[in-house]
């Protein structure tokens, strides 16, 4: 995971640097009309998968509800000279900031796990405009979760964990029409959460002995681009 994320990150930065130095990345509209640089913000529903926290047990998840939300600020930089064909462009997709929250709630008693995370993402994208004002983007991005926290709240106790930067990968697709934007994305990232009351003790992976906690999730977002 770490090697994959670093490869995507280095590739994206290299492409963006070369594009800027050669004048490929521009802030004005391109000749292809709707295929131009776009700043966006979006928000929506984010659901942990059934492998969240390393748990891979359907019986376990039958007793827990899984909900969440996400908010993102990002930019799609279209590389003007990287025209693969009419209406098709390569680009760099950057999420400057992603704020996400997931909550797992046990249905049989008062027991909740909340996870708050702040991340950034960068990676190559491919944009295709089959009709006027309509654009599809597909992308794969290296994800850097900068900081995150886990709170475990029950009737008898509370535990808190904090994590330093980790690594992950995000893949997905956007559908843009004029200024409206719909997105679907799969996120897979890992972080090392340390107990704040017991240094050196980590939340870890429920499914094995790793100190790193996996947090795969699916998100469905709605937003605006301009």
Explain this structure to me?
This protein has 226 residues and is mostly beta strands. It has a single domain, classed as Porin, CATH 2.40.160. The chain contains two helices and eleven strands, in the order H-E-H-E-E-E-E-E-E-E-E-E-E. An eight-stranded antiparallel barrel has the order 1-2-3-4-5-7-8-11. A hairpin with a 3-residue loop joins strand 5 and strand 6. Residues 18-31 have low confidence and may be disordered.
What are its keywords?
11 strands; single chain; Porin; 226 residues; eight-stranded antiparallel beta barrel; 61% strand; 2 helices; mainly beta
Give the secondary structure arrangement, pairings included.
Layout: H1 2-21, E1 38-48, H2 58-61, E2 64-85, E3 88-106, E4 111-131, E5 134-154, E6 158-163, E7 167-177, E8 180-191, E9 193-195, E10 213-214, E11 217-225
Antiparallel strand pairs: 1-2, 1-11, 2-3, 3-4, 4-5, 5-6, 5-7, 6-9, 7-8, 8-10, 8-11
Q: What does the main sheet amount to?
A: 8 strands, antiparallel, barrel
Please list the strands of the largest sheet in the order they lie side by side: 1-2-3-4-5-7-8-11
Share of residues in helices: 10-25%
Number of domains: 1
């Amino acid at each position: 995971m770490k090697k994959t994320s670093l490869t995507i990150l280095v590739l994206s930065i290299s492409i963006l640097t070369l594009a800027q130095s050669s004048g490929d990345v521009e802030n004005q509209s391109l000749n292809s009309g709707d295929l131009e640089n776009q700043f966006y913000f979006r928000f929506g529903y984010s659901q942990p998968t059934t492998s969240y926290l390393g748990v891979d047990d359907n019986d376990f998840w039958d007793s827990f509800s899984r909900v969440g939300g996400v908010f993102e600020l990002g930019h799609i930089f279209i590389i003007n000279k990287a025209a693969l064909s009419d209406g098709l462009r390569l680009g760099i997709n950057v999420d400057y900031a992603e704020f996400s929250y997931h909550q797992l709630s046990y249905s049989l008693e008062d027991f909740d796990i909340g996870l708050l995370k702040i991340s950034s993402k960068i990676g190559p994208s491919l944009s295709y405009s089959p009709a006027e004002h309509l654009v599809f983007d597909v992308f794969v991005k290296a994800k850097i979760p900068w900081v995150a926290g886990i709170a475990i709240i029950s009737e008898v106790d509370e535990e808190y964990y904090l994590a330093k930067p980790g690594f992950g990968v995000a893949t997905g697709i956007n559908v843009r029409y004029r200024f409206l934007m719909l997105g679907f994305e799969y996120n897979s990232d890992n972080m090392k959460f340390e107990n704040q009351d017991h240094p050196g003790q980590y939340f870890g992976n429920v499914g094995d002995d790793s100190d790193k906690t996996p947090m795969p999730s699916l998100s469905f977002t709605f937003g605006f681009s301009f």
